[in-house]
Amino acid sequence: MTFPFHLLAPPDPAALPLPHPAHPADGVRLLRGAVYSVPEGSRPLTVDLWLPQDTAGPAPVVVFVHGGAWRTGLRDDLGPRFRHWDPGPFARLARAGFAVACPDYRLSGEAPHPAQSDDLAACLDWLRARAADLGVDTGRTVLWGESAGGHLAALTALTRPAGGVSGCVTWYAPTDLPALAEDHPEGAYDAHDPATFEALMLGGAPAERTGTARDASPVTHAGPQAPPFLILHGTDDALVPARQSVRLAEALRAAGHHPDLRLLGGGNHLWVGLTDADAEDCFTRTVDFARRCTGGDRS
Questions:
Q1: 205-213 — which CB contacts under 8 Å span 24+ positions?
Q2: Which Pfam families does the annotation name (predicted)?
Q3: What is d(CA 27, CA 54) in angstroms, rounded to the nearest whole number?
Q4: pLDDT at residue 299, rounded to an integer
Q5: How far apart are CA 167 and CA 298, in angstroms?
């Protein structure tokens, strides 16, 4: 007697029950840890959903992609400058009328490129499939990420333009991996080193995997169908040179777009070096940009 191996297949994440809601702040529902994908040979991937309690109709969506050099990170962590906020940044977005999705994705120790952007695409597909259950309008979606998450947000926005992405926000993100050695101070970055964070994500040193490095670079994919972009970067970033964001803006302009590039004087990675007011202004600019892109204005 043969075993019916199809029974071992996981259930369709689009058909699983949604998590029981928590209420971390007034006017906010939090569905923590909904399974959106079960990649073969990998752990289930989950997403947190911060939802406005009351809306006049389906809410626009902000998908936040965490940083951590593609190597580590928490899906609901915007970085050290925002951890003390009460209510936190995602609760504030929900109060402003946005649904916020904070997904996991496979890290570089689990799978190389393009697994990470594939996972974000799967999350967008899951959100579309569950839109009615969640009360969201995925035709009005803004991708937003910081550092490696900004890279993945931009890459996903530019390689999947038919996915209902209305805008993209990057904070201090690498965007042109083959140019990193050129953009760093001389000798500060070795493109032949197989142990850099970029090499671990690519599956080999950027200088040895040139085609993969180009494919994994958002600048490569800046074309006529790109959504609006808000690009924020500190001028004193010691980990990802600000020139990387300039390169993305230049590539988008060459494709006929008008990205909003803001270089913040004295800002280092994770907004180290900025005042609290300047760091909060980065968040405010992001929220205002999302409103403009989605019509999601709510006081």
A1: 206/177, 206/178, 206/180, 207/181, 210/178, 212/113, 213/177, 213/178
A2: BD-FAE
A3: 7
A4: 36
A5: 18
- What is the residue range of 85's domain? 17-294
Q: Are 158 and 78 in contact (CB under 8 A)?
A: no
Q: Where are the beta strands (DSSP E) in 104-209?
A: 136-146, 165-171
Mean pLDDT for all residues in the chain: 95
- What b/e sequence results for 234-260 when a residue is b if at least 16 CB atoms lie within 10 Å of its CB, and e otherwise? bebbeebbbbbbbbbbbbbeeeebebe
Q: What is the CATH number of the domain that holds 268?
A: 3.40.50.1820
For residue 97, the surrounding DSSP H or E stretch is none
Residue 249 inside a domain? The answer is yes
Q: Between 289 and 160, where is the model more confident?
A: 289
Q: Could you tell me how far CA 256 lies from the centroid of its own chain? A: 23
Residue 55, φ and ψ in degrees, nearest 5: -140, 155
Largest CA distance in the chain: 70
DSSP 160: -
In a domain, 7, yes or no: no
Provide the token pair at 253. Answer: 């302009």
Q: For position 5, what pLDDT does the model report?
A: 67
Q: Tell whether the torsion through CA atoms of 222, 227, 233 and 235 is positive or negative.
A: positive
pLDDT value at residue 129: 96
Judge whether 238 lies within some domain: yes
SS3 content of the chain, % helix, strand, coil (to 5): 35, 20, 45
- Can you tell me the distance from the alpha carbon of 113 to that of 106, in angstroms, rounded to the nearest whole number? 10
pTM of the model: 0.95
C-beta of residue 80 within 8 angstroms of C-beta of residue 274: no
Sequence-ordered list of residues with C-beta below 8 angstroms from that of 30, at least 6 positions apart, any chain: 21, 22, 23, 24, 48, 49, 50, 51, 91
Phi, psi values for residue 167, rounded to 5°: -175, 165
Domain-embedded: residue 129: yes
In degrees and rounded to multiples of 5, residue 86 shows phi and psi of -140, 110
Query: How many domains is the chain partitioned into structurally?
Result: 1
